[in-house]
Design a protein that fits this description.
about 260 residues, mainly alpha, 15 helices, globular
Length: about 260
């Protein structure tokens, strides 16, 4: 089975300090258990930040990002305040920005088709981690340009591997109008990659107006499974979670049916 564990704080401190020697699987288990400890009111986000620092040089990608992923979950739950989120951004830059220089970034389709899957996955994790930071401005600009070309018909401008990051960034930069445009494009498309990516990016835009509009949308082109994906996206962001919860309460019989 899978188990979470709890430790006295002194033992957590020792484990965090020596976490770099763990296997990737062990690192993930430690990060998950410490994450659960924070939710239980015992562990702290500071401990997770120190664990992230200890693991950042791990040779395996899953180990290197295990604690960072856990902090990201806490941020999405609203557990980390605005000052803490700013600190998290600075920490991520310090731990991972130089690593991305080693891998580079080109959003064009097939740019990394000949490299190993492991190297590709490292780059994806690094870009996702740094995209929302101050030093991620160049990445955001590259993705914005690629997305605009992609939506204008140049499908070679954006590799499908970046489409989720690209659409999230596009809506963040362009606002409500961009979200509505992507939804309309999605509903008129049968592309199995573009359609779900566009709908979910709009749903998780953190914009209450868009969240309410999507949840109440009565459009025959929208499939029942997509409605659930939209609900997941709305619930994934603290800014719209209340709207999603109220919608669930109001539509519980429909959902159960």
């Amino acid at each position: 089975g899978y188990y979470r564990f709890e430790l006295p704080r002194r033992d957590w401190a020792t484990l965090i300090t020596n976490a770099g020697a763990l296997t990737a699987g062990e690192a993930m288990a430690v990060a998950d258990s410490l994450y659960a400890s924070v939710l239980a009111g015992r562990g702290t986000v500071d401990e997770l930040a120190r664990l992230s620092q200890s693991l950042s040089k791990h040779k395996e990608r899953r180990g290197a990002f295990a604690a960072d992923v856990a902090i990201g979950k806490l941020v999405r739950l609203g557990v980390v305040d605005s000052l803490g989120r700013m600190g998290w951004g600075r920490l991520r830059q310090r731990l991972y920005a130089d690593k991305l220089k080693e891998y580079g970034f080109d959003p064009r389709a097939g740019a990394y088709a000949k490299e190993s899957p492991a190297r590709t996955q490292w780059r994806q994790s690094l870009v996702t981690t740094l995209l929302g930071t101050v030093r991620g401005a160049k990445l955001r600009k590259q993705l914005q340009g690629a997305t605009e070309k992609y939506l204008a018909g140049d499908r070679a401008a954006l590799d499908e591997a970046w489409i989720d990051n690209a659409f999230d960034n596009y809506i963040y930069a362009e606002g409500e109008g961009a979200a509505r445009d992507l939804v309309e494009r999605a509903l008129n498309s049968e592309d199995p990659v573009f359609r779900p990516a566009a709908l979910v990016s709009a749903a998780r835009s953190s914009r209450p107006v868009i969240a309410s509009w999507l949840l109440d949308m009565q459009d025959s082109r929208l499939r029942s499974t997509e409605r659930l994906d939209i609900l997941d996206g709305v619930m994934a962001r603290s800014a719209t979670r209340g709207i999603g919860y109220d919608w669930i309460v109001a539509n519980i019989e429909r959902l159960l049916t």
